[in-house]
Amino acid sequence: MKGLSISIVTYAPDLSVLAETLFRLQQALIHARYRGRLIGAHLTLVDNGPGPDWHDRLTTLLKTREWPASVELLSGHGNIGYGAGHNRALHQSHLEFHLILNPDVWLEEDALSEGLAFLTAHPEAGLLAPAARDNYGQPLYLCKRYPGIFDLALRGFAPSWLKRQFHNRLDHYEWRDQTGETVSWDPPLVSGCFMLCRRKALLDADDFDETYFLYFEDFDLSRRLARHTRLVYTPTVRIVHLGGDTARKGLRHIGLFLRSAIRFFNQHGWQW
């Protein structure tokens, strides 16, 4: 039996969605403890703002549940970015496993017990990626091949009719031929919405690069983790993810996306 720390970074979250995320997390923790897969857990909710009012709202939300874990809220530091928020939680943990979780990800009840059992049985695995669906039940592909500029432009900003013209290319980028009902090792890149990791692997890889602020920090971390450990897609670990669609979030998010993309390709290599 092992210990698990969990970090969730928020910025003005939809409280109803976050409440469901916390409920599903609570149920998954209870299930993992019942199955004997978990001996201790610690949840850190990192409040990146904006403003001081979120502290009280998030505190109230956390107190609505009886947690099978110790719970902590970090607040008052401002918007330090996605990666920096998770790093704060990671650095104060001493437990063996760490879950990086988005505030809009809902776990299936057995997600943690299945994931922890797999990592315990496979010490060569340092990061586990789940099978994901959206809130309509459609599959999402969280593992990716290394992207070209055209892949990112198509996936993030192209209209549906144009995506259909290049569906073979997009399917290849989304690693669909490897993402099915069986375990697949060594996906080149993994989404940061759910990363179940060995804490040591994260520390060996120097955790998140905080200069990204938002977008591509998960891809960058995937590349650096692969130098120290193995990444693995495990279909028995199931989640629902409500997020995505950068193009609809406004010009600021598009600007952040493009800035981070340039940084990522400068660091890891450009591909068209």
Description:
The structure is a single chain. With 272 residues, the protein is an alpha/beta fold. It has one domain (2-268): Spore Coat Polysaccharide Biosynthesis Protein SpsA, Chain A (Alpha-Beta Complex), CATH 3.90.550.10. It is 39% helix and 24% strand. It is built from 10 helices and 12 strands. It has helices spanning 15-34, 53-63, 82-91, 111-121, 149-157, 160-165, 167-173, 199-204, 217-225, 251-268, and strands at residues 2-10, 38-47, 70-74, 97-101, 105-107, 125-133, 139-140, 143-144, 184-185, 189-190, 194-198, 230-241. The strands form 2 sheets. Strands 1, 2, 3, 4, 5, 6, 7, 9, 11 and 12 form a 10-stranded mixed β-sheet that branches. The protein has a two-stranded antiparallel sheet with strand order 8-10. Strand 1, helix 1 (15-34) and strand 2 form a beta-alpha-beta unit. Helix 1 (15-34) packs across helix 4 (111-121). The protein is globular, with a radius of gyration of 18 Å. It starts with a strand and ends with a helix. The mean pLDDT is 94.
